[in-house]
Design goal:
By secondary structure, the chain is an alpha+beta fold. It has 16 helices and 17 strands. Helix 8 crosses helix 12. It is globular. The protein binds (2R)-2-hydroxypentanedioic acid and zinc ion. The site of (2R)-2-hydroxypentanedioic acid (2HG) has 8 residues, from helix 12, strand 15 and strand 17.
């Protein structure tokens, strides 16, 4: 993000849980603040020190502890890179039930700690469901071993859930037990160009109805976001004639167990969509080869990088009702215009993309530079808009340091008070990722 900067002098890279425990115990006794760090791909500054905290990087802990190909249960060190886990599971016909654009560098411990959502949550659900157990070093150095490999374990408080999405404020996740999914035998995708945003919802209904159990992703990209991805060379652009007049795009993925069956369903879907009066889509580009499948995904997965290449991106990762996606983007743009901030390219673009199936919009405001004027025009404006629609100010990226002040837009006072009590119970000295999730 190039937005958050601390003044740490020290990074430690422990090789095993015992070393993490010893470091944390030492820090707790001396009241030294700690920032646990995975792949450092977060977007809200959760893994970046605020002051002079000690950074504990998990990157040296990369052992796969066990995998059972009958149950699909994988147990791995927190520092395993998501892509390496996928590569490990591939010959065993399994996949990690989580997929992100950052898969080449994000780590499973960070994914769990931030409760990362990603591109296939629609199909495989959230980590609150697929994580079966965790090993965590608590802020006093105690190792909490909850690394169970049981599908069912209904024995009182489910402690692991507290650490999923705690962003390292309650302890450091050092090991993860996760339920891998069977690898689909056939995957396909299609990029649909839509004449108007109003068609997204009816399209989603239709796609769900017709593709049913093989639908694995339904991603929304608005026109400006698509154009920026193309400009910055992400994936191969669709033909000019195919995208002419399109207001937005939807990338649909299917994952099933029989190619002919899935292809038949997809082709029938496309025919029905084209024949409908009025047609819900301008056109659909169906991947005809693994290379094209990857290229269509590259457009979607490359959006974040395109925003960064284009300028400084203010990112609002919000949950709002699906039919409000466009309104949120347009209202924000109008607001910045009325403040005179779209003049001289101070703000260059206001774009939206996201996970329709999860009601999660990524509103990106790309500016020439991060400035106090733009920030004060955006906040609390965007958060008030989200609160008005009873949405969430963070659908999947977490709170980090970016949104601690905005927590009350999504959580009531009683909830925040309970969160503070939990934080105090685990970390009475406040050494664990201080200033993240909850304000200092
Ligand atoms: C995505 O869905 C990520 O691509 C990043 O959550 C979102 O760049 C963003 O704002
Ligand atoms: Zn996302």
């Amino acid at each position: 993000m190039n937005k958050y900067h601390g003044r740490s002098t020290t990074v430690l890279r422990p090789r095993n849980t015992k070393e993490v425990s010893e470091i944390v115990k030492h820090c707790n006794e001396r009241r030294i603040g700690i920032v646990p760090q995975g792949g450092n791909t977060g977007l809200v500054g959760g893994s970046v020190p605020i002051k002079d905290e000690l950074v504990i990087s998990l990157g040296n802990m990369t052992n796969i502890r066990s995998f059972d190909d009958a149950s699909g249960i994988l147990v791995a060190d927190a520092g395993c890179i998501l892509q390496s886990l996928s590569d490990y599971l591939a010959p065993h016909d399994h996949i990690v039930p989580l997929d992100l654009g950052a898969k080449g560098s994000c780590q499973i411990g960070g994914n769990v700690s931030t409760n990362a959502g990603g591109l296939r949550l629609l199909r495989y659900g959230s980590l609150h469901g697929s994580v079966l157990g965790l090993e965590v070093v608590l802020p006093d150095g105690t190792i909490l071993d909850q690394l169970t490999t049981l599908r069912k374990d209904n024995t009182g408080y489910d402690l692991k859930q507290l650490f999923i999405g705690a962003e390292g404020t309650l302890g450091i996740v050092t090991g993860v037990s996760i339920l891998a999914a069977s690898a689909p035998q056939a995957s396909n995708n299609v990029m649909l160009a839509l004449p108007t945003f109003d068609n997204v919802l009816p399209l989603y209904r239709e796609v769900k109805r017709q593709l049913s159990e093989i639908l694995s992703a339904f991603e929304f990209i608005d026109r400006r976001a698509y154009d920026l991805a193309v400009k910055h060379g992400q994936g191969r652009a669709l033909n000019e004639s195919d995208v002419e007049g399109a207001e937005c795009f939807v990338l649909v993925e299917t994952s099933g167990s029989k190619r002919e069956h899935d292809e038949e369903k997809l082709n029938t879907l496309l025919e029905n969509l084209m024949e409908a009066e009025p047609s819900l889509i301008n056109t659909g580009v169906l991947a005809s080869s693994p290379a094209q499948f990857a290229s269509l995904w590259a457009i979607r997965e490359g959006l974040t990088e395109s925003m960064s290449k284009e300028g400084k991106a203010y990112k609002y990762d919000i949950s709002v009702p699906l039919h409000k996606f466009k309104e949120v983007i347009d209202t924000t743009r109008d607001h910045l215009q009325s403040k005179g901030l779209m003049r001289d390219d101070a703000v260059k673009h206001v774009v939206g993309y996201g996970h329709v199936g999860d009601g999660n919009l990524h509103l990106n405001v790309v500016a020439d530079a991060y400035t106090p004027e733009i920030e004060s025009a955006l906040e609390p404006f965007v958060y008030e808009l989200v609160a008005k629609y009873k949405g969430s100010i963070s659908a999947e990226h977490g709170i980090g340091v970016m949104k601690t002040h905005a927590l009350p837009y999504s959580k009531n006072a009683v909830s925040i008070e309970v969160m503070k009590r939990i934080k105090h119970l685990f970390d009475p000295n406040g050494i664990m990722n201080p200033g993240k999730v909850l304000e200092l």
